[in-house]
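pinning this so it doesn't scroll away 📌
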Amino acid sequence: MPLSRKKLTIANIYHQVSLWPLCLYGEVLVYHFHKLVGQNYPLPMIVKQQNRVFEWAVDLERFNQMADLVLKKVEDDPAWTKAVMKKIPAVCQELLEFAEAIHRENLKEKNDEELCKLYMDYRDKYINAYIYSRLPNALDSSNSLFTRKLQAYLEKKLSSQSEVGRALSLLTTPRQKSFKQRETEDFLRLIEKVQQNQSDINKLIKYHHQQYGWLPFGYDGPAWSEGYFLSQAQEMIEQGVEPTLELKKIKEKDRKLAKDQSKLTEKIKLNKDKKYNYLFSIARELMYLKDYRKDIAVKSYYYLDGLFKEIGRRLSLSSVEVKHILPQEMKDILVKRKYNVKDIKARVKYSVLLYTEKGIKVFVGQAAKELVKKHVQVEKTPRTVKELKGETACPGKVTGQAKIVLSVEDISKVKKGDILISSATDPSFIIAIKKAAAIVTDKGGITCHAAITSRELDIPCVIGTKIATQVLRDGNKVEVDADRGIVKKL
């Protein structure tokens, strides 16, 4: 499709991220996705980046048609679907092991060619992992197609919207433990050992940090320090937290989840509907796998941090500036030193990626602005909106003050009982999420990070409102009725 024929629409917004790794994510969509479903995402694609806020612009109609294609393949070919889901952990583990090996290397002893090879080999493994791991995202795309299909089924079975919301949340909640859940339980066991004088707290904290310090790293960090875990442990001990009791509650919650899922399945006769019984089981598995994939990616970014710092040291660039170099440029820049520091710094302030049949082109300055102005349309947001509609991720009804969280710099704004409003949450928001009384997002289907995390922490959550971050402001009093997927500005 010629670029000039139709204006593109912004489908996704990402905050506090660089050209890398999102350029790799784009490569998967437009150049490699055919390896999974027979077609790539439609070209052209324009990605605008300004001060590390990314806006992805696509032909939205064709973009959503990809979700139709993927959902049809999932419905028609269970064997293919299960094979892909089995593949996801394998390719993710391969990526993680490679990143961990880089982390263990003495990078200062490597020459430029060796550093470049490590970088490019990681890129290849990342793309291979995301070809398969894209499946959960592709099912929903920007129109929450898979989520709406499951919701429509439940609407025929249940009498009220609140019942539908609770049922959708319950039937799509996985029973496998995420890394976040494992960290919570292991930390309680740590406190248990300390209280019973079974081990030295500093030794336990050191090990726990090695296992889980990377969890909030996101794209660029920071990670949790040993000091963070030590202060958390001291706070819990001072508050008289009973870890044995808390672990017992978690086990009971797990048993209740399994029991409630079985009871609801019988109530709506889901086990007698072969198609939808299969689709709901796929939804649960994909929720777990999407969260697993995201955590593996974050852990690999954590391990790769030293590589970017070393490349930056040699090029007199910050690690963030290094992440504004495209993979296809790295050899010329790192090995041959063909680069202009000023141009790379300009990319951080404002740059545009154009995905074409011949590859990725990067634009800066006025050329970038003109490309966006000519080819990207901005949808107008209504000025006065009192009520937003989304989808139930985790049920519940609460009232509180809105706090807009778009990056880690915003986390400190969130106090206990606030309503966290975001375009989409990510692992770096976990401290704020734990304080929040509810979560509301612009984007997302049942497999999004906010949906997964809210269920793990039992926090009411409404996803896919599209415009929450645009119509709500810090301090607004809002009511979140996650049973019905409604958010009201009071």
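📌 and the second one:
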Amino acid sequence: MPNISRNRAFVIAAAAAVLVVLAWLAWPDPVPVDLAPASRMSMEVTVDEEARTRVHHVYTVSAPLTGTVLRPEREVGDPVTANQTVVAVMKPTAPSFHDPRLHQELMSALSAADAAVTLAEAERRRIEATVNLSNIQLRRMQTLAGEGAVARSALDRAVADAQTNQAALASATAELQVRRNERDGAAVRLQNPTDSVATSSDPGCCIQIRAPVTGDVLKLIQESEAVVLAGTPLIEIGNPQDLEIVAELLSTDAVQVRQGQSVHIDGWGGPPIQGRVRRIEPAGFLKVSALGIEEQRVRTIIDFTDPPQRWRTLGHDYRVIVHVVIWRRNNVLTVPVGALFRVNDKWAVFRDEDGRARSAIIVMGHRNNRVAEVLFGLTQGDQVVLHASDRVSDGARIAQRD
């Protein structure tokens, strides 16, 4: 009997050991997670957007009249001085080609002008002969009047005739000059592009356009010689040190931005720099994004507050990233946004309580792309689970990932 009892006790002990081993093997391992503490810190909420720099005052030099603009001698980046540096040179355009019908009409007009000149010359010669005759008669009358052989009235008529004929000669001379000018005009209209025209080598042929302000050449709009109309833009000039930033914010973000708010500027290849909102334009505009989405945008103008030495390598139309600070507070209890998840219409986190995950409903305040403000639900130092997977549930065993 003692041996049977001893064997039974051994079997029971062995079975219990096997059950313990099986239970231990079947017991789930803790879920490895990343933990982060709820901590107090200074927090900012920003509106982030790509933006570009631009010269505050850009002057566009345009063609003052229709003509041929020569190839510019200036290049982008060249300095110019107001009212001294020549930035563009224009010359008259060459005559255009004539179609056969127009050419025949111009030839006929030239022939008619030649005939009119011939007629005016003949008329002038006729009147000139009349003037000579009236002058001879006037001298004869003056001689006879001196001898008392003719009446005074006859002498007066001779004087009037001479003066009338002299005025007619002056009129005929002017008429002849008019006809000659008309003939020259008709001949010029027959000029074709192969005829000699004024060139840039002639200092009196061209118009020199000078820089309106002192600065640098920002853009050559017309780089080659071409015929342009009056008002055609030719070149852009500005001071590259007079920079500002233009950010096209979504209208839903722009309503939160106020004049004078601080701006962090980065993403331009240099150290972060500071700025300030100067103006939010009162009118928006429609812009289609790269994905084809129509967005209502508002231009926001930002000035640099850091000294120019920190951003002097920036130029006109450079890309930057702006972060407009719309809210800021010190000593705020925060958790990383990666710890947040939704429970119905509320926000929640998994809190580490003695190695087990416990869901905690929180009241969230402001949030940025890194952390969220916690108003209620957590205390400083609470460890929360970051990016909880589907293996983490309320009450699940968790352990800090190595």
